[in-house]
Design goal:
141 residues, 4-stranded mixed β-sheet
């Protein structure tokens, strides 16, 4: 992966990374990030935060995902029916035993392919799975 270049920016890379992290990690607006940084004595406009998020956000988010610890090996799979734009859809969710949502998948069908797609996105198989007794879950395992 290419190194992120912070050349020609007024603030040091650690300040830029922290501002982008605040915006991406918490549900904050650009102005909220501006106020949080002002409390720390940094005079940064929300437009600067916006431009940093647009420029560096994707790369910083990718790096954060890479260093995130691996989820636990006990999962709970859940499924529910929702209506989106008047159409019946199935919402699938994988949650580890600590409550971290691993993945969410919305599909029109409730079948083996949907369950397999949800499980494969994680990259490894859990040792124990708690689930409803649906046939499509069994096919995925």
């Amino acid at each position: 992966m290419a190194e992120i270049s912070y050349r020609r920016h007024r603030f040091p890379p650690i300040v830029i990374q922290h501002a982008v992290w605040l915006y991406l990690r918490f549900t904050l607006s650009y102005r909220d990030v501006e106020e949080l940084l002002a409390e720390r004595g940094l005079d940064i406009s929300y437009e600067s935060v916006r431009s940093w998020v647009l420029k560096f956000g994707r790369m910083i988010a990718r790096r954060l995902r890479q260093v995130r610890p691996r989820p636990s090996d006990r999962w709970h799979l859940d499924e529910m029916v929702v209506r989106i734009a008047g159409k019946r859809m199935y919402l699938w969710r994988a949650v580890d035993h600590e409550g971290e949502i691993l993945d969410v998948l919305v599909q029109r069908r409730r079948d083996r392919r949907a369950a397999v797609k949800l499980m494969r996105k994680q990259g490894f198989a859990p040792k124990r799975v708690v689930m409803d007794k649906l046939r499509s879950y069994g096919a995925a395992f």
